Structure formats: C-alpha cells, structure tokens
Amino acid sequence: MDIKFKLGVITDEVTQDIFEAAEFCHRHGLKCMEVRSVNGRSPFDYTDDDVEQIIAAAKKYDLDISAISSPVFKCEYDDEEAIKANVAGFEKCAIMANKMGAKYIRGFDFWNKDVPVEVRATMYGDIIALCEKYDVYCALESDPAIHSSTPHKLADLLLAINNPRIKALFDPGNEIWVTGKTSEDAYDKLAPCGIVNMHVKDGINTNGNTVAVMPGTGVADFVGIFKKLIANGYDGAVMLETHYRKNVELDEEQLKRPGGNAFSDGAYEASEESIVALKEIINKALKEITK
Hints:
The structure is a single chain. By secondary structure, the chain is of the alpha/beta class. It has 11 helices and 10 strands. The protein has helices at about 20-25, 50-60, 80-100, 115-120, 125-135, 150-160, 175-180, 185-190, 220-230, 250-255, 265-290; strands spanning about 5-10, 30-35, 65-70, 105, 135-140, 165-170, 195-200, 200-205, 210-215, 235-240. The chain has an 8-stranded parallel β-barrel, surrounded by 6 helices. Strands 8-9 form a two-stranded antiparallel ribbon. Strand 8 and strand 9 form a beta hairpin. Helix 1 packs parallel to helix 2, helix 3 packs parallel to helix 5 and helix 9 packs across helix 11 (about 265-290).
C-alpha cells in the first residue's frame, strides 16, 4: 500500500530563516513546507522581500508551498474592526498564495465566547468570496483557545458552513491541551468535511500542565491515526508542527499566537529529532497496515 500524502514542516518550527527551513526540508527528504512566521513577521505582515525569499527558497530546494499558516479569525467574533483587519489580511494571503503556488490558507473560529455554531457559521461569507475570487481554500483548524477547540467541534462548524471553499485542517494533538488526550474517532468525525492538511504535535500532562513533547512520546495515538490516513488514501499534506523545544518551553501566549523570533528559539534541534520520530511513526503504521 502506497503513502499518498506529502510530508513537510511548518517553517518557523525550524527557524525564521526560510532558506534554512527549506534546506532542512531538502535534507530530510520532505516534499513541501507550510509558511507561518518568516523573518519574525506573520503572514499578515510579510513584506515583498519576504515573499520573494519564500518563493526563491522553495524553488532552490524543489519544494511545494502547501499552505500559508495565517491567523485569520483569531479574534473576537463581535469585534468589527478586528474582523475587517483579518479579512484584509486573508486577502493579502490569497494574493501571496497565488504567487507562491499555494492553494490553502489556514484559518480559525474566533476566541471562545460560547457563541452558537449557527451564528459563527455566518461569519465566513467574506472569506468564501475571497477564496472564490483568488481560487484558494480556507482550511480551518481546531485550537484550544477558540470555539472549535476539538476536531469534533470543528466538524460541527464545517457542516454548518457547508461550503466547498472551506476545508478541514486536522490537528489531533491540539486536543491534548483541551481534554488531555486525542479522541479515537477524531479523524472519522472530521474526514467527511474534507481534510486537506494535517498538523502533527504531541503532548503530555505533567503536574496539571500540558507540555509539548517529541511525536510518539506523548499521549497521541499517531500510529493509529496514520493507519487510517494510509488506508483511506489521504493525499493532502502532513506537517510537523513540533511545538516542543530544546532547553526552552513555549509560554501560553506563544502557544496561543505562535510565531516570531522568540518562538523559534530551540526549534531547529527539536525538529531534527521530531522529523526522524515522525518518519518512524509513519513507517510503523505502514508496516502494521500491510502485514
């Protein structure tokens, strides 16, 4: 049985230097990268030079740019100015995605204020219109700080939006920061909504706190998850999103709003270990499913 998905990394989980991140991908045999903060700047704040560097780095190492990891709608659902700024930021990302050859832009579901899913689902009209204008897709991700804090809640939102331009980004590890575990049926719940990207991080609960660890050393059942992906012929991207660091621990704000120079401190060495561990997990899943 063949593996159809493309393996890559979110660049600032390695370094802020996009050429170093691309070289990391090349050296580890990765096929793509997802860009988040580059040169200390979020996608909403990329300069023309940042974009040129990203395109040049991808070309130099023959990599696809699978997605722009934007922070769109990590804001209050009723803050009109913030929403306006986020929509403008998304349009900037859509224009950059066209230049980079990327089809997907990551998005979210507003800071959690217990707003009903039916109400939140109506907030994506401008995003859908921009996706249609620029022929891109918005891949929504579950996150501990937003309404869709688990894959199950994200599936409920996607079903309520019910638009082909809004897809699913599967991040099973994020649920560890919410429930202390990954749900066995998370993939099954989200798959019908159209998964186009997956992030891989692991965590463990220590003294009442959840901390990121190398994939395979936390509570996530990634072997089981990858067995499902392989069996179902998943052909999207799988991105290492390390989140654990060597001799550094990310604080709550960095986990809530990842990015920037300090975010990448200690990242390179941790991602070196983590990409090797992730490949071992995938190989184990493949062996188990084919034996």
